[in-house]
């Protein structure tokens, strides 16, 4: 088998040693059979190479054409446990790591539970969502997550990580940061628990709409409440219009979603103290606050801008490609790098490097890739 068969970008070389796990116990057994032995690299040292590759939905991976020489764990665990209300009246729901994320979201909406509907249509597995603190249309996983059950490869022990332990931020968490520091996964997610509001049926009002584009699609004002099934339908339509809902016949969806994260720029300038956003952003570039996922308070020391805006204004339009055009920007959305049918990982990487270099040259901002890169760096 080739890793191109297991990823949404549909690139990646051969698998040398593949093991499919279908239960939490089997996944735990695999993790304990492959303990993490690497020490944290000293400052300035490069991370070690991944020793084990974990694949579930494959929606956030760009894997080299040479493939992966070590063990590959294909996570196919399934199961959803519907609990009762907690002290705040929210319904606890636990999903196994290998559950399909959008299928899980659909199931919560069908039961009239609000909290995840704005995250509809996102490819991948439940277990991957807390790693990136997946977010869209004004919602993040951190908003409703209450517990991550994981196995620590450094100790072989199962652990429960609460939101305070997770250190959530924009597209990051303890899980992602620890893997980045080591160059290898430390915490393997076994299951995730969410606390969702009982909306008394899918047709009952949801949480307030918090994203302008979504509010416009629904024909309501920001802060209005609408039925959760309508929110889900509108989000799916919006994502499909951008090529962000998987479709085997649409090469714009042969991607890893948004390839670059939105840059977060510091507003603290040494002796000059705090500066205005206009001092660090290109003229007319959008500026967004960076909020604490726990308190909701804006961080006054940083500002976030749009990677898509930077890409477009650096001269890279929809459909831009390099070389023979086997990989290109989506024809619908400049933040997605796509496989036009016969691309290699090298083709995708070459396109990413060209775009990142062009943005850096034009604006002095270095874009950071969102997918996990296996077997090479940009």
Automatic annotation (TrEMBL):
One of its GO terms (biological process) is regulation of cell shape. It is found in: Cytoplasm. The keyword Cell cycle applies. Residues 10-195 form the FAD-binding PCMH-type domain. It catalyses: UDP-N-acetyl-alpha-D-muramate + NADP(+) = UDP-N-acetyl-3-O-(1-carboxyvinyl)-alpha-D-glucosamine + NADPH + H(+). InterPro entries: FAD-bd_PCMH, FAD-bd_PCMH-like_sf, FAD-bd_PCMH_sub1, FAD-bd_PCMH_sub2, MurB, MurB_C, MurB_C_sf, Oxid_FAD_bind_N. Pathway: Cell wall biogenesis; peptidoglycan biosynthesis. Its main location: cytoplasm. Keywords: Cell cycle, Cell division, Cell shape, Cell wall biogenesis/degradation, Cytoplasm, FAD, Flavoprotein, NADP, Oxidoreductase, Peptidoglycan synthesis. GO terms for molecular function: FAD binding; UDP-N-acetylmuramate dehydrogenase activity. Pfam families: FAD_binding_4, MurB_C. The active site is at residues 171, 258, 370. Cell wall formation. This is UDP-N-acetylenolpyruvoylglucosamine reductase.
